[in-house]
């Protein structure tokens, strides 16, 4: 089906799901008047949320907006770690489980708020002893173990800026991010488990550190048993230190550093339209305010919930909805290290039963995989504790939504489809589960206090066009690390003083937002954001490749997969081996998430007369559609030959 065809059927979606009555009755928010209340004075509204945090010094101005730069809660001082941990120690949460963790092999750990506090305060002391000061950058390259959260919170405690790098990224990708941020310390592990095998993180880190002169120390968490010597971990004397040695030898913790509301909290790299990932900068007061607000209301979070967000802490979802949002609310967070299909396809549902998960937040790509694996897996387990389900990362197709609703939610649980981005820091468009009537496939309405529109290129409000955020919001990115020009250019140059997220969207008769996906050269593969240029750079990095063009190809489970059109230099012949080697080369340069599924060799690429590669056209070919308009093409013959090749297989 063509894109517009699929869209039309989406917009004719007439199944409606009001909040189930028992849910609505107990929900934190069930009165729609909240939207008008927030819209009447968004600044006052956010200030009320900010006041729910502990501040050392109050702010004097809620918002200073000199587009495109916003400052929230100006003059206020607070500490994120204090708000996520220390302040909960006073009352009954002291002995409440903050983190419940299960490793892929089945090992488990539980940390109370007291226990988490002790570890974080000690580790903050360790970092400080190693010379990490307020404002210094610390890179974190860890598997999904509690130490990932501990390291992030320890940085926040002393005012160091963390830069978490997803453990699936290659040594090159890690090195690029460390160099760009100028990180002083790298925190990693010997390895991590994924589908029964060990990912050699320290070995990767060693390869990265060959190119990172800023790194003074590398702290290594011993995740794997000492018998796992196949990893062959080497410790470089003076530079590399074991986490457990440092923690054993340190005496006591350090207090929280009072931070300015606008001090940097973290940098997180994400893909854009150029070959180089950009370091999205988030700050302290506004970020935590919106994380706390959205976690509480979108997930209807109550004191006795068992909350599980299946993301990795290496992505923004893990930052905002595993660590900062839930802990700021004093919640019990469940964290799992491994794959959903290990040792079998029932692992997630087994975990839901075993830990009595009540709120579950995952990605549409995972839901589509579960659908494919069959209802028999969830049917084996007791999912009756679940009361609310969420999704994030890409548009959810109505079939997947319905399956989630019926099979996992047993028709009892509202679904919150949450739209947001690394750059927005926290949820922006979402149902409120006790208020909003949902429809499969739409993220519905902006969260109270957020203002969004659908606009044309010219900036008029339209029914179908580009998504736009028309007012600054507390958890917005403040800049791109080291490149404010790129920040202005990427997000603020389309319309005056308005944020452009890079997504297309439509609205329906209820005024709901239907997010249609990226309108730039950014792919969404299994919920992971990948820039076409990044993959192209990795391909042309191979000595045989003359030119490469990468497009997204529709994929039943992943949403999109990567298709690459490659021209080889003279003297090199296309072959299956070459294709496999090129795929492997991309994995080594970027990481397994960027592996092209299809490589198509071609003698030429379709270009406009001005020399721009026509990606749309290539996408048409990759997805087997009739080729669209080629009138601006320099050599229409190129397309015909390409298409023929593709059809030949
Ligand atoms: C892009 C942001 C935010 C955490 C995960 C991804 C797409 C995200 C939805 C949704 C439709 C969505 C957008 C967005 N996206 N959530 N509920 N419906 N699309 O963060 O890597 O920064 O990617 O993911 O295209 O721009 P990210």
What is the CATH H-level superfamily of the largest domain? ANL, N-terminal domain
Which descriptor suits the 3D outline?
A: globular
Strand order of the largest sheet: 12-11-8-6-7-14-15-23
Distance between the termini: 21 Å
The chain-level mean pLDDT equals 94
Helical segment tally? 21
Q: How would a textbook summarize the main sheet? A: 8 strands, mixed
What does this protein look like?
This is Acetyl-coenzyme A synthetase. Keywords: Acetylation, ATP-binding, Ligase, Magnesium, Metal-binding, Nucleotide-binding. With 649 residues, the chain is an alpha/beta fold. It folds into two domains: 484 residues, ANL, N-terminal domain (Rossmann fold, 3-Layer(aba) Sandwich), CATH 3.40.50; 127 residues, ANL, C-terminal domain (GMP Synthetase, Chain A, domain 3). Helices cover 32% and strands 22% of the residues. It contains 21 helices and 30 strands. The strands form eight sheets. The chain has an eight-stranded mixed β-sheet with strand order 12-11-8-6-7-14-15-23, with helices on both faces. Strand 9 and strand 10 form a beta hairpin. It is globular, with a radius of gyration of 24 Å. The chain starts with a helix and ends with a helix. The mean pLDDT is 94. The site of 5'-O-[(S)-butoxy(hydroxy)phosphoryl]adenosine has 22 residues, from helix 12, strand 20 and strand 25.
């Amino acid at each position: 089906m063509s894109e517009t065809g699929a869209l039309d059927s989406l917009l004719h979606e007439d199944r409606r799901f009001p909040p189930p009555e028992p849910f609505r009755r107990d929900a934190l928010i069930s009165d729609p008047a909240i939207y008008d209340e927030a819209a009447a004075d968004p600044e006052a509204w956010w200030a009320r949320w900010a006041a729910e945090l502990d501040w050392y010094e109050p702010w004097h101005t809620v918002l200073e907006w000199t587009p495109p730069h916003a400052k929230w809660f100006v003059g206020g001082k607070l500490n994120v770690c204090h708000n996520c941990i220390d302040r909960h120690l006073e009352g009954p949460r002291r002995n409440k489980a903050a983190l419940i963790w299960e490793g892929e092999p089945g090992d488990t750990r539980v940390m109370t708020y007291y226990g988490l506090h002790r570890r974080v305060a000690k580790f903050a002391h360790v970092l400080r002893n190693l010379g990490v000061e307020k404002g210094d950058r610390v890179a974190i390259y860890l598997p999904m173990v509690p130490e990932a959260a501990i390291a992030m919170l320890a940085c926040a405690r002393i005012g160091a800026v963390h830069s978490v790098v997803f453990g699936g990224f290659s040594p090159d990708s890690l090195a690029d991010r460390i160099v760009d941020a100028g990180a002083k310390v790298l925190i990693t592990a010997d390895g991590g488990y994924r589908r029964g095998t060990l990912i050699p993180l320290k070995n990767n880190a060693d390869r990265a550190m060959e190119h990172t002169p800023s790194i003074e120390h590398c702290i290594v968490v011993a995740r794997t048993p000492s018998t796992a010597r196949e990893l062959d971990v080497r410790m470089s004397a003076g530079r590399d230190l074991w986490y457990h040695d440092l923690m054993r030898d340190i005496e006591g913790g350090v207090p929280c550093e009072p931070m300015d509301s606008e001090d940097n909290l973290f940098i997180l790299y994400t893909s854009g339209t150029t070959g180089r990932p950009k370091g999205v900068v988030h700050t302290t007061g506004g970020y935590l305010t919106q994380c706390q607000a959205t976690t509480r209301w979108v997930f209807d979070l109550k004191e006795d919930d068992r909350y599980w967000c299946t993301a990795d802490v290496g992505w923004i979802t893990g930052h905002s909805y595993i660590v900062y949002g839930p802990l700021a609310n004093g919640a019990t967070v469940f964290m799992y290290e491994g794959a959903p299909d290990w040792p079998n396809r029932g692992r997630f549902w087994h975990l839901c039963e075993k830990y009595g998960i009540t709120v579950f937040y995952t990605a549409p790509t995972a839901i589509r995989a579960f659908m494919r694996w069959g209802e028999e897996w969830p049917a084996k387990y007791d999912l009756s504790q679940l009361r609310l389900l969420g999704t994030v990362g890409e548009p959810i197709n109505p079939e997947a939504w319905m399956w989630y609703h019926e099979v996992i939610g047993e028709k009892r649980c509202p679904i919150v489809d949450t739209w947001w981005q690394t750059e927005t820091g926290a949820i922006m468009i979402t149902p409120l589960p006790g208020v909003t009537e949902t429809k499969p496939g739409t993220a519905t309405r902006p969260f109270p206090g957020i203002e969004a529109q659908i606009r044309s290129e010219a900036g008029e409000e339209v029914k179908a066009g580009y998504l736009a955020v028309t007012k600054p919001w507390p958890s917005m990115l403040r800049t791109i690390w080291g490149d404010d020009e790129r920040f202005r250019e990427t997000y603020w140059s389309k319309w005056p003083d308005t944020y452009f997220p890079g997504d297309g969207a439509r609205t329906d008769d209820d005024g709901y937002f239907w997010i249609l996906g990226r309108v730039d050269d950014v792919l969404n593969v299994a919920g992971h954001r990948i820039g076409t240029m990044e993959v192209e750079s990795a391909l042309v990095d191979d000595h045989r490749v003359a030119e490469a063009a990468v497009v997204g190809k529709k994929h039943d489970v992943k949403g999109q997969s990567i298709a690459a059109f490659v021209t080889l230099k003279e003297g090199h012949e296309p072959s299956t081996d070459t294709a496999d080697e090129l795929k492997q080369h991309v994995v080594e340069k970027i990481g397994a998430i960027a592996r092209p599924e299809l490589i198509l060799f071609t003698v030429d690429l379709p270009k406009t007369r001005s020399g721009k590669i026509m990606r749309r056209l290539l996408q048409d070919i990759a997805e087997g559609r009739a080729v669209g308009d080629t009138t601006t093409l320099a050599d229409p013959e190129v397309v015909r030959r390409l298409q023929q090749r593709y059809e030949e297989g």
